[in-house]
Amino acid sequence: MTPRTAQTSAPVLDTLAERWSPRSFDTEHTFPEGALRGVLEAARWAPSANNSQPWRFIVARRGSASFARIEGALAGFNREWAGLAAALIVNVAEVEDAEGGPRPWAEYDLGQAVAHLSVQAHAEGFHTHQMGGFDREAIRAVFDLDERLRPVSITAIGLLGGLEQLSDTLREREAAPRTRLTLEDLILVRD
Q1: Cα dist. 178→18, 19, 117, 181 in Å?
Q2: Which helix (H) or strand (E) holds 130?
Q3: Per the confidence metrics, is the pTM higher than 0.90?
Q4: pLDDT per residue as tens digits for the range 128-163
Q5: Where are the alpha helices (DSSP H) in the chain?
Q6: Which residues of the chain have pLDDT under 70?
Q7: Of 41, 178, 180, 39, which is closest to residue 122 (Cα–Cα)?
Q8: What's the topology of domain 14-186?
Q9: CA-closest candidate to residue 107, choices 66, 141, 151, 67
Q10: What count of other Cβ atoms lies within 10 Å of the Cβ of residue 4?
Q11: Which of the residues 37, 58, 94, 126 has the least number of beta carbons within 10 Å of its own beta carbon?
């Protein structure tokens, strides 16, 4: 497999440079009860507008009924590989407060919480892969989420597995070199 450490144009923390999103997870690895507490605690301490903390999580370990429900809502290639992960986490934004007032930054804040979760997971020796390809209404229905709670993404988490368990198409994607736009391509204005 090609090296996974990012080739950055400026120094960044090793945890950030080494983090990547695999599709191959160790199917023998399981999370015992409470093992994900550290990654969820990192998410809890993410910044949010007005300290509203508009994130909620559905945490399901492989083999549970909740895991099967989440896996069943996945779309396309995600359904092909995500079931290999030791756990799936549905990342949910609370888009309205208890009084029905809008929380316009909820999805942004949730993104920060999931980023914290991902970095903590990597620091603990796990890998994560974020997915947007899933049926949001199916997730809403099977977990009885009201309109205040919007499923935004799903995180697969576990230990890294081998390429041999993936289809040829996914194996090719997994082994491809990591690429990013240049920093100059991302900055719209710099004074």
Answers
A1: 11, 11, 21, 11
A2: strand 127-131
A3: yes
A4: 999 999 999 999 999 999 999 999 999 999 999 998
A5: 14-18, 37-44, 65-73, 76-81, 106-123, 136-142, 168-175, 183-186
A6: 1-3
A7: 39
A8: NADH Oxidase (3.40.109)
A9: 151
A10: 15
A11: 37
